[in-house]
Write a structure and sequence with these properties.
The protein has about 80 residues and is α+β, with helices and mostly antiparallel strands. It is built from one helix and five strands. The relative contact order is 0.21.
């Protein structure tokens, strides 16, 4: 099973990559499939490629849900 966590584009580079933040974890991903991305966009990434642009409100809501789930899963 694969869980898609939206990441926020922090920087788009001229080499066809972007720096993406996944709630504090930063990764460099390929923008070859979505070449018109800009900083502030939210994307779904799989296997190192940005595959799908996500509505910012939906992305923030999803990230908040994941944060709540992880918080509840922590031992007391």
């Amino acid at each position: 099973m694969c869980v898609a966590v939206p990441g926020e584009i922090l920087e788009v580079r001229e080499d066809g990559t972007a720096e993406v933040d996944f709630g504090g974890v930063r990764r460099t991903v390929s923008t070859a499939l979505l070449p018109d991305l800009v900083a502030g966009d939210f994307v779904i990434v799989h296997a190192g490629f940005a595959l799908h642009r996500v509505d910012p409100g939906e992305a923030r809501e999803t990230r908040e849900l994941f944060r709540q789930i992880l918080e509840e899963d922590e031992p007391s």
